[in-house]
Design goal:
- The structure is a homodimer of 377-residue chains.
- Chain A is of the alpha/beta class and 377 residues long.
- In chain A, helix 2 crosses helix 3 (38-45), helix 10 packs parallel to helix 11 and helix 12 (251-261) packs across helix 13 (273-285).
- In chain A, the strands form three sheets. A six-stranded parallel beta sheet of chain A has the order 2-1-3-4-5-11, covered by helices on one side. Chain A has a four-stranded parallel beta sheet with strand order 7-6-8-9, with helices on both faces.
- The first copy, chain A, has three domains: 9-68, 434 Repressor (Amino-terminal Domain); 84-186 and 321-347, Response regulator (Rossmann fold), CATH 3.40.50; 188-317 and 353-375, Rossmann fold, CATH 3.40.50.2300.
- Chain A is built from 15 helices and twelve strands.
- Chain A has helices at 16-19, 27-34, 38-45, 53-65, 72-79, 93-98, 100-115, 138-141, 156-165, 188-202, 218-233, 251-261, 273-285, 319-335, 363-370, and strands at 84-89, 119-124, 147-151, 169-172, 183-186, 207-210, 243-244, 267-270, 295-297, 314-317, 344-347, 349-352.
- Chains A and B meet through helix 5, helix 6, helix 7, strand 2 and helix 8 of A and helix 5, helix 6, helix 7, strand 2 and helix 8 of B.
- Strand 2 (119-124) of chain A pairs antiparallel with strand 2 of chain B.
Chain lengths: 377, 377
DNA sequence: CTGTTAGCGCTTTCAC
DNA sequence: GTGAAAGCGCTAACAG
């Protein structure tokens, strides 16, 4: 009947396991060793009631001596909980990590997750080719996580698959206006609005917006929208040729380009700090004084923004807080069974005025530039 | 005898599960549905031999229809393999991620791991306080990973715990000279040697080294050592006041400080690119021409190094490759049972000459500075 | 080729 | 307080 494990014969040898290199000790071993039932060992080790204090101590001591390490797999199989959450993002890990925005979000998630004694699994789009998820990552398919945090934009079908899989999940920094999902977001529109408003208040009238891809939706789209609205509310017409999209790292080229075709520009808003800093450097190198000739404001308030020359005026987003909030939201979902309904948590975006923004240069030269007949319509 | 799961009574209803929201379908359900044994289902789904092609197809189709997702936990319990590896690093995640060096290493690890269809778990030092590991992370303790990759320096006792736990592991970018462990390393000494040699060859004699913490061991220590050896081999005495350690982000302050006390300095080697770029900016801002007045060389060849003005001469390390190598090494350890002995894989560090390095300014002025009597001994 | 059965390590009723 | 036994979902002998 009884087959023997590996090559060890079960000759009533209570301690055989600790002598066998290939075998980890289990509660069964401890039970045999102490002379109690496995259930008692389980109770003792998990600090559950129903074990006399001294027995509990004996068991715990013996477990430590035998170098006992529990098998999470086995526990999870019966408890249906892995105490692990998965992180999902539709970019290559390197891309995600090198983005100061997301790396802070991740740090927040990790901190919160860890504080609740959960573990974290990662999944990104595979390898070098810019290839998107075709299926959910293995660890989700195999029930290896209790829930998922989606970071940034992912393909719509991934969200659908998550929904049909029944996996609890929350999204951070990706706004799906239609669906009603748990999400943690930054108030991009209002942030960009405030930034634009600041510049208008300083007297700027020709304000450029240098963006990244994509510019029609997502974070950058929302920021562009805030810029647009602020202009509109101030009665300044929105002008296409003051906006440049394109590669996120090309803030320098974009800014230079706009300035070439619209020399009357006196301020630029960048879709994020990385872009703003690139623009700042490029402009300074070309001899444009910042903020005397041209003001620059960024978005995100990455650490480096405070250390540029001049320090960058930007819009602060509590990325770390967003990460923590998302993680916390998920953990709540996992514990209180479906208690709260889906909700969006919007983090305020706060303008941080530093020294890269100031009033535009005296009106005269700007005016003369502006009326040059050869200016593009 | 038979207790009923939850509130569903087992009335020979082969399809009850898919109607029950709380219950995922299992191979048992499929078996019942198709009218075969669970073992057959298992074989069919895992593409194992011993199932007729048509039966296999039927089972697979039915599994898909029933929305079957396997329970990795259960499988792992019997196969003793989780197909997951853990990542261990003794810093806060944010710190790790904001470091371009490590984020590339991680990307490499992730890519390789994923290619082999493994998953990745993360563990960092907990939370904000600079607190080090006191115990192995939960996922290791609970056998939730098959092996571990240690990134960067960790406390020695963590290594010890890993060893006694019997977990297969490989270290990347952390050199423990004493022990004989699996590790993937960069050839820091030789890299720094080459950089220093380049400068010496160009005619520099007063070469500063601006470092980060710690400077007595680890990567920076090894780079300093390479610098030292190159000087030595060229017959140039090593001078303490040409070296500045301190905060890794303070390349600017350190460089300025050295230049203040040793105006005869004509070149600086930085312990990494982040530092070098900080120094570059600071020096240029103070009016020092680079490379005319002073040459700068970095270490790591982070992406941004090619985009500075002037582009940075630096030492390239294939961080991504190191990550991949470490992951691959671990996976091999997991498959071929303990085949190869422990080994260190050393990645070459290749000098990349760009435009931030050049010959020192004409000897005259440098000489006159160098002989000023008030120069510190 | 397919079915039977034992069991991975653990938790959890249910008895006593 | 403690023990006995069932079983989580799956794989892997072994038997036919």
């Amino acid at each position: 009947m009884h087959r023997f494990r590996t090559a060890t014969f079960d000759l009533e040898n209570g301690k055989r396991l600790q002598n066998n290199k290939n075998m980890k000790t289990t509660i069964k071993d401890i039970a045999r060793d102490v002379g109690v039932n496995v259930a008692t060992v389980s109770r003792a080790l998990n600090n559950k009631p129903g074990v006399s204090p001294e027995l509990r101590r004996t068991i715990q001591r013996r477990a430590a001596e035998l170098n006992y390490l529990p098998y999470g797999q086995a526990r999870s199989l019966v408890t249906r909980r892995t105490e692990t959450v998965g992180l999902l993002f539709d970019m290559e890990l390197g891309t995600l990590l090198s983005n100061p925005f997301y790396s802070e979000v991740l740090a927040g998630i990790e901190a919160e997750i860890r504080q609740h004694d959960y573990s974290l699994m990662f999944a990104s789009t595979s390898g070098e080719p810019v290839q998107h998820f075709t299926a959910l990552p293995k660890f989700i398919v195999e029930h290896r996580v209790d829930g998922v945090i989606v970071v940034g934009s992912v393909e719509a079908n991934i969200i659908d698959m998550l929904i049909t899989s029944g996996q609890p999940f929350v999204i951070v920094d990706y706004h799906l206006p239609d669906r009603h999902l748990d999400a943690v977001l930054a108030d991009n529109v209002r942030g960009a609005y405030a930034a634009t408003e600041l510049l208008i208040g300083l007297g700027h009238r020709t304000i450029a917006f240098v963006g990244g891809e994509p510019l029609d939706h997502g974070n950058f789209g929302e920021r562009l929208e805030g810029y647009r609205r602020a202009l509109n509310d101030a009665g300044i017409p929105f002008q296409d040729d003051l906006v440049a999209g394109g590669g996120i790292e090309n803030g320098d080229l974009n800014a230079l380009q706009i300035l070439a075709r619209r020399p009357d520009t006196t301020a630029v808003i960048a879709c994020n700090d990385t872009n703003a800093i690139a623009a700042l450097n490029a402009l300074q190198r070309k001899g444009y004084g910042v903020p005397d000739r041209i003001s620059i404001v960024g978005f995100d308030d990455i650490p480096h923004a405070a250390r540029t020359h001049p320090p960058l005026t930007t819009v602060h987003v509590d990325r770390r807080g967003m990460g923590r909030a998302a993680a916390l939201r998920l953990i709540h979902k996992l514990h209180d069974n479906d208690s709260q309904p889906e909700c969006e948590t919007v983090f305020p975006a706060k303008l941080v005025v530093r020294e890269s923004s100031g009033p535009p240069p005296a009106a005269k030269p700007a005016d003369s530039e502006a009326v040059l007949p050869d200016e593009r319509q």
